[in-house]
């Protein structure tokens, strides 16, 4: 019961905010006189308009599909390279200058080059997500390998275990907790950069709806798109948090 009380308070605060937004702040009067912020009822009408035409559902579906592709590709690359570099220290030291040089560069900074070579399209948006996801997963995967008990690796070598077997039986399970945490972080990063990528030339998705709303001078469309970006981002966070806890629980039961 104590755990539910903060959630109940959050719900009450949310309802109070929505009521204040609609009725008590003078937003409707301001909006009718040409103000920039629409009341909640106008945003709701925009939701009914876009959902009845299928525009909103299409934008959500396209954004989620790009999110899944970018997160999958970036995470797989980060995990594979991270496990290899974590296992072979000399190789990581050789590549460290390149990693540390590229890691601080914002994925958005690469878009002009991507557009120059490949034009405006899906590739640039997917690249932004993959680039943003790759480095956090890479670094956590390396840390996961480095924190494996060295005695296990020494014992495996003493028994003549080959490198492939060591990877499957020791390295991957030992680094899995770090990888799970990395995927949770990567999911949030991927969603944030997806919206940024869609706002830079893609003609579909939730990010594009924001730009379209700006071009049409429809702040109700902008706020509605922002609302769904937040809701879906929160849902993604909950899903990956649940998966992380499930993985940790399973690993704990196996110990």
Which terms summarize this structure?
255 residues; mainly alpha; MetI-like fold; 83% helix; globular
Provide a concise account of the structure shown.
The protein has helices spanning 4-24, 27-32, 40-53, 55-87, 89-102, 111-118, 122-146, 150-158, 163-174, 176-198, 206-215, 219-254. With 255 residues, the chain is an all-alpha fold.
CATH topology: MetI-like fold
* Assigned CATH class: Mainly Alpha
Kindly provide the radius of gyration, computed on alpha-carbon positions and rounded to a whole number of angstroms: 23 Å
| β-strand number | 0
- Helix/strand-derived class? mainly alpha
The rough form would be described as: globular
| Average pLDDT number | 81
Transmembrane segments: 67-89, 101-120, 126-145, 166-183, 189-211, 223-243
Domain ABC transmembrane type-1: 56-240
GO cellular component, one term: plasma membrane
Main location: membrane
Helix-strand layout with pairing:
Elements: H1 4-24, H2 27-32, H3 40-53, H4 55-87, H5 89-102, H6 111-118, H7 122-146, H8 150-158, H9 163-174, H10 176-198, H11 206-215, H12 219-254
Helix pairs in contact: 3-12, 4-5, 4-7, 4-10, 4-11, 6-7, 7-10, 10-12, 11-12
Structure write-up:
With 255 residues, the protein is an all-alpha fold. The protein has one domain: MetI-like fold (Orthogonal Bundle), CATH 1.10.3720. It has helices at residues 4-24, 27-32, 40-53, 55-87, 89-102, 111-118, 122-146, 150-158, 163-174, 176-198, 206-215, 219-254. InterPro entries: MetI-like, MetI-like_sf. Belongs to the binding-protein-dependent transport system permease family. The chain crosses the membrane at residues 67-89, 101-120, 126-145, 166-183, 189-211, 223-243.
